Structure formats: structure tokens, C-alpha cells
Amino acid sequence: MKRFPSLGLSVLFACGLAFSVSGCGEQKEGPAEQTGKTLDQAAEKTTDSVKETMDSTGAAINDAAEKTGEAVKETVGSAEK
């Protein structure tokens, strides 16, 4: 009598394993997944664009600060003479 429950449990386990493995095949993407990928790509492009803009803006600010510093030094030097 104890054999029947263990046999039933074994069959149940085997069926569960078979069903879980059968779901591992290639799956097509649905419309929501495609939209998600498109949004992710757009966000990456936007992030890259913003980074490039920030880098170029930072470089322009640094150049302007250097030129302003040089102009201030020249003005102070002229005023001291």
C-alpha cells in the first residue's frame, strides 16, 4: 500500500519535469516585448546623445574659463604696471 503514493508522486514529478522542459523552446516576442525593446533602444540613444552634449558643453565651459582666467591675469598685470 505504501508503494502507490510514491508511484503517484513519481509520475507527478515526471509530468511536471516534462512540462517544464517542453516550455524551454524558442518563443516569439509579443507586441509588448517588441515595444519594450524599442523603448530601451531609444532610451540608450537619448542617454548617449545627452552624454555627448554634456561632454562638449563641459569642454566649452572649461575653454571659456581658461580664456577668462587668462584675460583676468592680463588685466591685473596691466593694472599693476
Q: Shape, please?
A: rod-shaped
Radius of gyration: 34 Å
Distance between the termini: 112 Å
Q: What's the helical proportion of residues?
A: over 70%
Which structural class fits the helix and strand makeup?
mainly alpha
Could you describe the largest sheet, including whether it forms a barrel?
A: none
> Low-confidence parts lasting 5 or more residues at pLDDT below 50?
none
Secondary structure: number of strands: 0
- The pLDDT mean sits at 81
The portion of residues forming beta strands comes to: under 5%
Plain-language structure description:
The protein is an all-alpha fold and 81 residues long. It is 86% helix and 0% strand. The longest helix has 50 residues, at 31-80. The model has no long low-confidence stretch (mean pLDDT 81).
List keywords for this structure.
single chain; 86% helix; rod-shaped; 81 residues; mainly alpha
Task: Explain the layout of strands and helices.
Blueprint: H1 3-22, H2 31-80
What's the short story on this structure?
With 81 residues, the chain is mainly alpha-helical. The protein contains two helices and no strands.
